[in-house]
Amino acid sequence: MYIRLRGAYALLFLLLLLPIIIIAQKPAQQHSNPDTTEINTINKARINGLLIGGGLAYAGSMTGLYHLWFKNYPQSSFHFINDNHEWLQMDKAGHATSSYYIGLLGYEALRWAGFNNKKAAWYGGSMGFAYLTVIEILDGFSAGWGASSGDLIANSLGSAAFISQQLIWEEQRILMKWSFHMTGYAKYRPDLLGRSFAERALKDYNGQTIWLSANIRSFLKNERRFPGWLNIAFGYGAEEMIGANSNPAFHNDEPLPGFDRYRQFYISPDIDLTRIRTKSPLLNKTLKTFGFLKIPLPALEFSSKGVKFHPLYF
Predict the structure, then answer these.
(1) How many angstroms separate the Cα of 307 from the Cα of each of 8, 130, 296, 302, 304?
(2) pTM score, two decimals?
(3) Which of 2, 56, 58, 208 is deepest in the core (most CB within 10 A)?
């Protein structure tokens, strides 16, 4: 079974476009009647630009995916596979995060074009699920993979996490975040877990952590003294994985250590870069662009191996 990385590739490709959308944004004009906001601010030129740019980005990313992952492998009739037990579900957490941030990108793009919050949340926020569903369909016709119901569920949860918050609160009070640190496991399976830093950041699930980072002050009524940028984050990770389903005893006829796969849960303070305001508009937009990263800070880890304190964890 080949490693399933199309969701990570899609997120990486589209995150390259996120700074362009955010930096290009101008503050939306405020109106007393929210029902007329879209009528008053809709920008047809920007919509046309998004249609053209989005179409090119979609075509380019799909072409890249085809040549990188599908072209050299045999095709088959459409089929599903059950991969829900792979990587202790770290890949599913990655799918949800990818869908969440593609939805954020779609929302930001439509707001930039003048759509009101509700329509931008529904249409833009659904782009992650729509985009990744196409990839699942391609998987379904590949003999080496197969469509995954678990991936589809994870994609829908990521989109739902974004859309629901935007509709209820008109802001993202709970961010999905990502962090990565280098591990020593890739040296045992570099073909599977990566060789370079960039490859390992995408492939080595041992070093990835997916976070739900909640902004504290946004849940405190009429509280303005509490720092608006301070979050509390809850993370999920897994370690000692050198195979998707289980750890092999040998690789290339060489014996491998007997690792014991296990899950990790974290709690850590966090900084919400998207809520920091400076006097520099460019710096504000730069902070917003990198808001998907969990800031390295102290963390408590809970696992079957006990409780561990990390003075600085990323």
Answers:
(1) 30, 39, 19, 5, 8
(2) 0.87
(3) 208
